[in-house]
Write a structure and sequence with these properties.
2 copies of one chain form a homodimer. Chain A has 224 residues and is α/β, with parallel strands linked by helices. The first copy, chain A, folds into 2 domains: 142 residues, HAD superfamily/HAD-like (Rossmann fold); 76 residues, DNA polymerase, domain 1. Chain A contains 10 helices and 6 strands; from the N terminus they run βαααααβαβααβαββα. A 6-stranded parallel β-sheet of chain A has the order 3-2-1-4-5-6, sandwiched between helices. In chain A, strand 2, helix 6 and strand 3 form a beta-alpha-beta unit. Chain A is globular.
Chain lengths: 224, 224
């Protein structure tokens, strides 16, 4: 086996972001799913735009900016209370049900693990605790240290640097296809957790493995 | 007046992309507007992702990739005929009705003009001809020469370089708010043609001028 460490994306991969839509639905009946989807798209767009333009700010703030914009676009009045509730949800997302077991399996196999996330350190600390994942990672890496969001090469470089391992010997795991594709371009071995059974992005690049949930990462590792 | 040249974005600013939705509606009844909107979002996303990852390919191909992906996502069967028709539309977009008059006004005032577009040269040549705009620009600049899409600084640098003018003395005009914001960050004087009366992006930056169509650029110039 050539994989020497597993590097996980955070939001959507380890932490269940679907609860956002349910909470949004409570505040904006009939619009929860639309708000959650557009919020996520805008959050990623802003992170990429700020990276291209060298105007980094922490992901927590980018996330809040995206929420404010999308509510304005959808003509939803965002009360202070709703904003705090929706942002607060990001700090206490739960893990997908299979995730803790998979992370414990990896530890019992002696596999090293890390998170590599757009989230700033405070966000990540809070969500790791909320999901009961303290102590399950060798490293929690935030792009905040390089002030560039994924898919910038400086962001992906953090994991090979901290492990002192060749990028191809790291398995990068993400539920975001664009992230898995960016990491593949960068040189990682990659696994796309395709929870929503979405089509592959048309980027001319294919992650090395694909599955429906995090358990499939273990099956991939058995073969690599 | 300190503005010495006007630099226009192409798609959506000079050329009317709304005809895409009408054509999409013919091929996919009931889904035309959704397809057109998601196609545009995905086209921009791919251009930014490829710029971040240094995996440039011409905008025509990126546009086609985005169309193929979005049809797959929306579970629409994209026939060879529909693909050719929709892509072909990009090559023959019409100008917004006021645009030719505004460009001629700028010429009669002795103002220098350019296009600065993500489109590759072949796309731009075709669409400028289709819209009857030959000879109305001093320069037609494509990011293809630097292999990075907007909002990369190398893309925005093309216009100050070709004119030999300070960036702040160039008025950059775009109907895409993210593009107007990126250009503002870069140092241009900027004007957002907000045709759809959309909210300002939450990026902490505001274009210097704003209006509902291209004619408002003339009013802005009268005051600057």
């Amino acid at each position: 086996m050539t994989i020497q460490a597993v590097v996980f994306d955070a939001y959507g991969t380890l932490f269940d972001v679907y609860s956002i839509a349910a909470l949004a639905e409570k505040h904006f009946p009939g619009k929860g799913a639309l708000l959650a989807e557009q919020w996520r798209v805008k959050q990623i767009e802003y992170s990429q735009l700020r990276t291209l333009c060298s105007t980094y700010k922490p992901f927590w703030e980018v996330t809040q900016d995206a929420l404010v914009f999308v509510c304005r676009k959808l003509k939803l009045e965002l009360s202070f209370e709703a904003q705090n509730a929706l942002m607060g949800q990001y700090a206490k997302l739960q893990a997908f049900p299979e995730n803790l077991g998979v992370l414990e399996q990896l530890r019992s196999r002696g596999m090293k693990t890390a998170i590599l996330s757009n989230g700033n350190p405070q966000m990540l600390d809070a969500v790791v605790k909320a999901a009961g994942m303290q102590g399950l990672f060798n490293h929690i890496l935030s792009v905040d240290s390089v002030k560039k969001f994924k898919t910038a090469p400086e962001a992906y470089q953090l994991a090979p640097d901290v492990f002192g391992l060749a990028t191809k010997n790291l398995l990068f795991v993400s539920s975001n296809c664009w992230d898995a594709c960016g990491a593949t371009w960068f040189g990682y071995t990659t696994f796309w957790v395709n929870r929503a059974n979405a089509p592959l992005e048309e980027l001319g690049v294919t992650p090395h493995g694909q599955g429906g949930n995090l358990t499939d990462v273990l099956h991939f590792l058995d073969k690599h």
